[in-house]
């Protein structure tokens, strides 16, 4: 089952590799002794892919995303983003990160929240305004520029946080269970919008989730992970077309992939507890 | 309207209770002296007359509420504000040094908090000293501050204000340390993903996040400043200020004057705390706070 995550030959692909992890490991030192959050992770993500990381809690999927984002340092192995180290990539603002909660600043309006990364990067005001307008349009939040976060629903807040991650035009979007706290109706809607957005922007997306239908619906590739130690147990290429209406989820093809993911999770003993 | 009524009723109930208790205590505490007076004058008043007399002494042990109210009213509204008998005049003397000391204290508190949050050495070394500073009885330190500063030629408003500063920087420093450290990990991670500098994290995240903490601690600090200013007036032989008025009242056993000065002090305190509360609400509104 422990097949290498990358099935692509390492030839001219290297230039198009956005994320490349080799033998990645991360051990946290806790009071109860060391915890292996990640072990022997090999993974390559190409440009324009939509890769989901799925697994039960403790499988290291969020940790892996945080390593890619340089929010955690690996204790072994190597990782490169766009051919740079994770730290260099972060310094070059190579990615936008969407957290589990919207994490909007409550004292800023929606447009000022989206402006935050642009301010940090020191963009001129005129360009800021232009990018804010464009990204808010992209997530269908036009007309809410002057609202404060508490005046928006949870789904709209999360869309605003996606706009904030898109505002500075990074090619890579890292999303850590962005819709986990939302109800299923809103989640379906946002999934559809996210796919649409991905289709229009040709970004590379790494998406952490614990929902099998969400992973299958969104991804071109699904990375199945399992805990103790956190590791990759299976990588499933999706055979679904890029155009995916919501009702694709009732097709036999969709269900077959979902079944494979479920098998992968079971094989990783993910259901033990 | 309902919320107003729901506030007024309990508050005035308590107030009425206090006034009744106050009258009872006034009669009880003033009775021995009144009995003495009556005995010397050879009078035998009825109980009703006796009670009325205990509440109308010139220098009572505990003045009755109406005596204090009358004194307060006369000395606040019926005197020229430049008169040394005017409570407005004395309140202003105290208020001006309170405000100056409070401003110093707030600035000092913020500066100390910024230092503690950003410099590990200061975090380790400064905090115990700051806490120790507040364990020293201010009444003991105040005269020394006044004397030392007078020796180097600083007199007047500044020494008094410095005592206010001494009391008010502490809550601000403690509150702001907490406030500047209040941003959630997720918000800090977010700034980290933007590769934001420490200065940017400070101005765009830590400072706005600390604002509610600042106002909460300023409310405590402004009251402490007033106490500091009054205490500062006691040992200095100050001729103006609520503290001076209290001291003069104590010298000449003008108990009614003392109580009226205390009322003036609490009015000033209430105004100061209300002003900080108002400023807090305005800033909160400007920062997109959800209306309560």
Q: Tell me, rounded to a whole number, the average pLDDT of chain A.
A: 87
Hey, roughly how much beta strand do the residues of chain B contain?
under 5%
**Total number of strands of chain A:** 10
CATH topology of the largest domain in chain A: Rossmann fold
Mean of residue pLDDT values of chain B: 90
Basic shape of chain A = globular
**Percentage of helical residues of chain B?**
over 70%
Largest interface: A-B, 25 and 20 residues
- Give, in order, the helices and strands of chain B: HHHHHHHHHHH
Quickly give the structural class of chain A.
alpha/beta
Number of domains of chain A: 2
CATH architecture of the largest domain in chain B, by name, is Orthogonal Bundle
CATH A-level architecture of the largest domain in chain A: 3-Layer(aba) Sandwich
Query: What shape does the CA trace of chain B take?
Result: elongated
Taking pLDDT < 50 over at least 5 consecutive residues as the criterion, the unreliable ranges of chain A are 1-13
| Radius of gyration over C-alpha positions of chain B, nearest whole angstrom | 24 Å
Strand order of the largest sheet of chain A: 6-7-8-3-9-10
Could you characterize the architecture of this molecule?
- The complex is a heterodimer of chains A (273) and B (292).
- Chain A has 273 residues and is an alpha/beta fold.
- Chain A has 2 domains: 12-94 and 171-267, 3-Layer(aba) Sandwich (Rossmann fold); 107-169, no CATH class.
- Chain A is 34% helix and 25% strand.
- In chain A, α3 (110-120) crosses α4, α4 (125-138) crosses α5 and α7 (212-218) crosses α8.
- Chain A is globular.
- Chain A starts with 16 loop residues before the first strand and ends in a 6-residue tail after the last helix.
- Mean pLDDT of chain A is 87; it is low at 1-13.
- Chain B is mainly α and 292 residues long.
- Chain B folds into 2 domains: 2-62; 87-286, Orthogonal Bundle (MetI-like fold), CATH 1.10.3720.
- In chain B, α4 (87-118) packs antiparallel against α5 (120-133), α4 (87-118) packs across α7 and α4 (87-118) packs across α10.
- Chain B is elongated and about 90 Å long.
- At the A-B interface, β6 and α3 of A face α8 and α9 of B.
